[in-house]
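Structure in, sequence out. Go:
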C-alpha cells in the first residue's frame, strides 16, 4: 500500500515538473509565474528589437507563448499554488495588475499589426513601466 501511494506521488511530481519544463527557457522547480516571466522577458526584448530594427512583423509571435503561460498562471492561482515573493497576501491586486498589463500587450500587438511604429514605441514604454510597477510591488 505504502509503495503504491509513493509511486502515485512520484508520477504526480514527474508530470508536474514535466509540464513546467515544457516551457522554453524554464528551469526545474520554476513556478507558473516564473515560467510566464521568462517567456515574457524574451518576448519583450524581441519587441524592442522589432522597434529598433523597424521590423514590426517579428513582434507578435513570441507573445503567443506568453498568453498560454498566463492561462497556466491563472490556473495555478486558482489552485492556491502561487506564493508571490512580496505582498503575497495581495493576490487580488496582483491579478488586477496582471490583467491591465496584458491589455497593454494587446495594444502593442495591434500597433505592430498596423506597422504603426510610433504606437509600438509608446506601447513598449508603457509596458516597461508596467514591468517595473509590478516588480516593485510583488517581486523581491
Ligand atoms: C503583474 C505583475 C508582473 C508584471 C506586469 C511583470 N512581472 Fe516579471 N515578475 C513578477 C513576479 C511576481 C516575479 C517573481 C516570481 C517569483 O520569483 O516567484 C517576476 C519575475 C520576473 C523575472 C525573473 C524570472 C525568474 O527567472 O525567476 C523576469 C526576468 C521578469 N519578471 C521579467 C518581466 C518583464 C520583462 C516584464 C515586462 C515586460 C515583467 N516581468 C512584468 C511579476 C510581474
Amino acid at each position: 500500500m505504502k509503495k503504491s501511494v509513493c509511486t502515485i506521488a512520484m508520477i504526480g511530481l514527474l508530470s508536474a515538473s514535466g509540464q513546467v519544463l515544457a516551457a522554453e527557457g524554464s528551469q526545474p522547480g520554476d513556478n507558473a509565474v516564473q515560467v510566464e516571466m521568462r517567456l515574457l522577458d524574451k518576448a519583450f526584448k524581441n519587441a524592442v528589437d522589432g522597434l529598433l530594427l523597424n521590423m514590426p512583423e517579428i513582434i507578435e509571435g513570441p507573445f503567443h507563448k506568453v498568453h498560454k503561460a498566463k492561462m497556466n498562471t491563472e490556473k495555478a492561482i486558482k489552485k492556491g499554488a502561487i506564493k508571490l515573493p512580496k505582498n503575497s497576501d495581495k493576490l487580488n491586486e496582483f491579478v488586477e495588475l496582471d490583467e491591465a498589463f496584458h491589455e497593454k500587450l494587446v495594444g502593442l500587438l495591434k500597433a505592430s499589426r498596423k506597422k504603426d511604429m510610433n504606437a509600438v514605441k509608446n506601447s513598449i514604454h508603457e509596458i516597461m513601466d508596467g514591468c517595473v510597477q509590478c516588480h516593485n510591488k510583488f517581486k523581491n
